[in-house]
User: What shape does this take?
Amino acid sequence: MTRLRAFFGFLYDFVVGDDSLIAVAVVVALGVTAAVASGDVAAWWIVPVVVAAALGASLLRATSPAKRER
Amino acid sequence: MSREVLLFLSVFLASSVEGVEAVTIVLAAGLTTGWRSALSGVAVALLVLAGIVAGLGPALTALPIDVLRLVVGGLLLVFGLQWLRKAILRSSGFKELHDEEAIFEHELEAARAAGSASRQAGWAINPYGFTVSFKGVLLEGLEVAFIAVTFGSNQHDVPLAAIAAVTAVIVVVAAGVAVRAPLSRVPENTLKYAVGVMLTSFGMFWGAEGAGASWPGGDASIPALIAFTLLLSWGLVFGLRRRRARLSAVGARTVAAGAR
Assistant: This one.
């Protein structure tokens, strides 16, 4: 059980990393892209826009005086 | 120009583009996480690829390549953003730069102390390096196989298409080996920054393509995505440096007020 928990802990750290906001944003961006593209509308711009917003938000969180990453 | 020459050139050029993408990913992983991890990922990917190609043959085109692109692209994008986030924090001074000499000394000391155990540790595989190389080579390898099978079947000459694809891969790998040495002299932190930019850019490209989006200009949009990611990261570094200076000034004023 402990090994299983350790494995899932490793898997979570491996995929999600320091900030879960990034992983969530990527899933949302790809989901919205798939939904928009299925309607024959240009959807290539969605991922870059969400990536820029998520990266900026994640960095602001990491550097806020209350939660400084070291 | 004869039909054979046209077929060879078409497959060679299309496969070269895919090959360059795979070699870029492997170079990035090898230079930052170690060659053992990256090359292990390449070897396992080639084994899986050989099994798929041998098992499916011409039925290869029935594989859901878009699903693979979506999964691989999504994971590369998450990995790339994690690397880029750390690189931006380091460049803006919010996270300490790696002291590479201190890390080397520490590892050397640990290896000496561990004796025979250090040999085992030397074989340890970095999961990021392995996974990134594995996925890059498997996806791009499948795309090269697709190109050879589809172009070759259309022109009723799969062997010639396969020769063109293999030639392209050999040429691109040779070019990758040639640039490996000069790249290894680039400082570690700069490399990690570059890897974050490359993984993020390729992740955006493959992920969106797998989700059904069409990039303007197809593969030609990859350099534009790299430029976009670089500009975005530089902008964020610039903004965070100003933020850090502001926070330091506020901290200094608070300390001065407390001393009075």
User: Anything to note?
Assistant: The first helix of chain A runs from residue 2 to 16.
